[in-house]
Every structure is written in C-alpha cells, then in structure tokens.
Amino acid sequence: MAIPWVTTVARLILGVVLIAAGLPKFRDPIQSVTAVKAYQLLPESIATTVGHLLPIAEIILGILLVVGLLTRISAVLGGLLMLAFVFGIAWAWANGLKIDCGCFGGGGQLAAGQEPTYLLDIVRDFGLVVCAVWIALFAPGRLALDTKLGLGKSEREND
C-alpha cells in the first residue's frame, strides 16, 4: 500500500522545511529575535529567548523527521510549532501589523510599500500541519531509523 511512502514524503517535506527555516535564523540569531519581537505577542525577555531557541528546535525536529527518529513525537511537536506560526501570522494580520513573517530568516517590519504575504504564509504552514498530522497517524513510514532501531512498526507491518 502507498501509505508508508506518503508518510515518508510528508516526513521529508516537513523535515526539510523545518531545517530550511531554522538554518538562516541560527546563522543570524539577532534577526531571529527581531522577527519574534515583531509579532508583539510575547514579553521582551521571552521573545528574546524564543528567538534564540526557535532555530535550534526547528533544526533538531527537521533532522529527526528526515531520518525518521522519534517520528511520531517529532511530528506532533512540528505540527504544534506550525500551528503556533499560523496563530502568530493570523495575529499579526488581524492586528494590522505589516511584518515579514521571518519564516525563513529575515523578519521584522516591512519597508514602506511592501505588503505582507499573510494568506500565503498561513496556507503554507497549515499544509505543513496536515503533513504533521499524517505523519503522527501513520508513523514512521519507509526508510525510518525508528524501524531499524525497533522503535516503530516494521516496513512490512506498515504495508
């Protein structure tokens, strides 16, 4: 059956996106903090901490998903992270903020004349939530370390 392969593709999509989102923020933590603060959702000190820890969490979750280790837990955490992003972007939109989401680095106030891409960002992140739910339901998929280490269903059981 195709379900294990769909799970693997969903794992790779969510994992690669998380890594791609985390790396630029990890390389520029000051910009990551700026992006988190731009949402005006968290107190300054908490926003600073989140700005520093977020890229690390994204990269770790992304790697775990790509290799299929602790797959179900990683999918749930990744899905919750994506839901938090959807909420944050919707919050910014509803409150009339004109910011770059900071999803793949950058972030903060947009320059004059620039318009935010909130709807596109929300649709993308919600699509990633769907991937996370699928993975959580049908983990670990094919080519997963969970299977090799006896932490998940065998590929034969997953058929």
UniProtKB/TrEMBL annotation:
Pfam families the UniProt entry points to: MauE
- Give the Methylamine utilisation protein MauE domain ranges: 4-137
Q: Which GO terms describe its biological process?
A: methylamine metabolic process
Q: Does the keyword Membrane apply?
A: yes
Which InterPro entries does its entry note? Methylamine_util_MauE
GO-annotated cellular components: membrane
Q: Which domain of life is it from?
A: Bacteria
Q: Where in the cell is it found?
A: Membrane
- How does the protein associate with the membrane? Multi-pass membrane protein
Bilayer-crossing regions:
51-70, 75-94, 126-145
Quick one: where is this thing mainly located? membrane
Keyword entries, A-Z: Membrane, Transmembrane, Transmembrane helix
Q: What is this protein called?
A: Putative membrane protein YphA (DoxX/SURF4 family)
Tell me which species this is from.
Answer: Nonomuraea soli
